[in-house]
Amino acid sequence: MTDKNPRVEEVDEKDVEVKDHPKKWAAGIPGVYHSMKPAIEHMGLERSRKTLLALNQKDGFDCMSCAWPDPDHRKTFEFCENGAKAVTWEATPVVIGSEFWAEHSVSELRGQTEYWLGMQGRLTEPVYKPAGEDHYRPVSWDEAFTIIADKLKGLDSPDKAAFYTSGRTSNEAAFLYQLFVRAYGTNNLPDCSNMCHESSGWAMGQTIGIGKASITYADFAKADLIIVMGQNPGTNHPRMLTALEEAKEAGAQIVAINPLPEAGLMRYKNPQKVKGIIGRGTELADQFVQIRIGGDMALLQAVSKRVLDAEAKNPGTVLDHDFLQKHCQGLEELKEHLATLDENVVLQATGLRSEEIDELAGRYLKADKVIITWAMGLTQQKKAVATIKEIINLLLLRGNIGKPGAGASPIRGHSNVQGDRTMGVWEQMPPAFLDALGEEFSFEPPREHGVDSVETIRRMRDGGIKVFVAVGGNLVAAISDTNAAEAAMENTEMTVQVSTKLNRSHTVTGKEALILPTLGRTEIDLQESGEQFVSVEDTVCAIHASYGKVDPVAPQLLSEVAIISRLAAKVVGDRIRADWAGYERNYDLIRDHISHVVVGFDDYNTRIRQRDGFLLPHGPRDSRTFNTPTGKAMITVNELEYLERPDKTLILQSMRSHDQFNTTIYGHNDRYRGIKKGRHVVFVSPEDLAELGLSDGQYVDVHGIYADGVERVLRNFRLVSYPTARGCAAAYYPEANVLVPLESVAEGSHTPVSKGVLVRLEPAAELAAEPSAAG
To answer: What confidence tens digit (pLDDT) does each residue in 377-431 have?
Structure first.
């Protein structure tokens, strides 16, 4: 039986519990329990069955919680704990009624937590907040589109509007959205990639000619060595643990490089295997390299230097000379640069011992096929682009790109964030794409680059962007410098959010604001020509279909495609050769256009209906061809730089709790780190606590240290003694975003630097509670 009004289990941060931390393994029976209990409680048995058994299946829908690829042979339960939570969150039958908007002002909603907002249920009708008023009120779809269209058409320049997108958007909706925006006249297409893997795209694009993973799912089981850097698969993409287990069983070694020990990388108890239920499971990491935040670049250079030194001692036996000569450029410059690498600087930057680096280098030298995989622990550093270039350098030295079982593997954490970019959702799409788009739809797309997410906030702040439209996402909560971002959003004339559930961005608005409710990925999308499906791209460039399986929670909901089509018809109309009404009726028409515009999508409508979908072409992976100016992979020279820590300070990183997905908070527990009933905690090593004269359980104010004179503080956060790397600290995202200045971005990619925040801890000015003892 479904609970139509599920309990909103808010917590008092004074009652946070800390015990049994950190866990030494992930998943097992607890993973099953925490998957199924909320699903059955909030969706009911039948809706849970329909959704979860279709999740990640070939005739089902793609999980919205990460971009992890699907194996060829699917299990009956092809989902993880957080995937089940994401489905439960979206497919809940609990809905927000019309009376809600009269009962709750925007000001009141702004005082609620992200968790409370989401727990109110699904959005089911368009609502509008007029200028000068503090309540949303229901409006018709036509009225909503007319209000938005009138505002957009009334701007003195299309560049006064920005159009944001989250990674949940399908290929079809993303393509239509960027077409609408460019037909309107701007390239202002910021998206969530700007805040996560933008650094990967920049680094890989400049070195191997494509910013996507150079491996397939099958390569994990063929690898001799897998190096996992700056990521926590057990929480952020748990199905990766199965691939790592398969690799380990096939003989691979695994190295985990991270400032914190993560349970999922230590030992995995696969709940679909007997040994994962009653046995010990599988030990994953053969080596845990507990690196200092921001030290990854120094570590990679040190390993590459050891590889080059080994070649110098035994010429012709270590490097892949044939590969380097045929396919690479820049080896001699790298040799010269690394010859002067100072080991003492490396040790200072990494916090490691030389023996640990020697061990890692030894594993790399012994392995014929190596995968290096990473996530936002690397991409959100100041030197993120240079660090990822060093990953490519290390792989190229021994020919570990373009052969089975080897390659570079950035792991996207949001379903179809990669597909959105492929479809043209980027403020800097190349001329070839714009040429093809213009030819297909008989118009001249704008050529001047648009704004990314950080620049969008800056221009809102300065009055240069008046209207903000978002398809999915929660930019106010996701972006850095929370206070500045909220003030900037409030400085706009209108904000429009296409969403399934309430979030913080609905409460921090422009003078006018609209919320447009949309179908979820779990729901059947019935249009005039029949039931529709959409498609997505996963993190290894595989394209497959996604079919909704349950009835929509409300009959008046529109799909994202329908919303974009109707808005485009109102704003753009027949200024380009586009059949907006036809696209809503039949998504095949959109895919036909995609096949003419986007490279690799030939005969899209036929190939997407293949049971296994299809794989996009990838020059480095498929044929060792590199789309760079020289036609070769570029070995690069990068000047080593790391964040120095002044006395009495720590380097802080933000991270997810186990009970969340991006800014969506499912609950208040972080099971693998031993945190219950709260999120306002900061993790610090016991040695650093002693050195700073602080104690476990004490409440502190966390002060960001920057030269701009702006005070950025997290107040009344509980200290948790935790085995972090020395000199480092960690706090949860998005709460810690307030500490990251808008101007603090990665060099080249413009990604907010959330991994490398200098902080000072001071006893709380106003104690939130008496310090409670850690269990």
So the answer is: 999 999 999 999 999 999 999 999 999 999 999 998 778 999 999 999 999 999 9
> CA–CA separation, 339 vs 637, rounded Å?
12
- CATH fourth-level superfamily of 198-410: Dimethylsulfoxide Reductase, domain 2 (3.40.228.10)
Parallel, antiparallel, or unpaired for β 664-665 and 660-661? antiparallel
Per-residue DSSP letters for 261-295? --HHHHEEE-TTSHHHHTS--EE--SEEE-PPTT-
Residue type (1 letter), 245: E
Alpha helices in 189-320 (DSSP H): 198-207, 233-236, 240-249, 263-266, 274-277, 296-313
What does each C-alpha distance from 197 to 68, 167, 265, 317, 417 come to in angstroms?
14, 12, 21, 35, 9
pTM over 0.85: yes
> Which run of H or E residues covers position 229?
strand 225-229
Output the CA angle 621-626-628, nearest 5 degrees.
Answer: 150
User: Which residues make beta-bridge pairs with 684?
Assistant: 721, 729
CB of 297 closer than 8 Å to CB of 286: no
- Residues 516 and 497: their CA atoms lie apart, in Å, by 6
Task: Please name the fold of domain 650-763.
Answer: Barwin-like endoglucanases (2.40.40)
- Domain boundaries defined on the chain: 99-196+416-619, 198-410, 650-763
Cα–Cα dist 682/680, whole Å: 7
Phi, psi at 762, each rounded to 5°: -130, 145
* Model confidence band, residue 769 (pLDDT cutoffs 50, 70, 90): very low
Least confident of 95-104, 229-238, 741-750: 229-238
- Helix 431-441 to helix 171-184 angle (10° resolution) is 80
User: How is residue 553 annotated by DSSP?
Assistant: S
For residues 461 and 484, give the distance between their C-alpha atoms in angstroms, rounded to a whole number: 8
Report the distance separating Cα 294 and Cα 664, nearest Å.
Answer: 27
First to last CA, the chain: 36
Say how far apart CA 153 and CA 575 lie, in whole Å. Answer: 13
Percent of the chain with pLDDT over 70: 98
Domain 99-196+416-619 has CATH 3.50.50.60: no
**SS3 of the chain: helix, strand, coil, percent, to 5:** 40, 20, 45
Residue 772's pLDDT band, with cuts at 50, 70 and 90, is very low
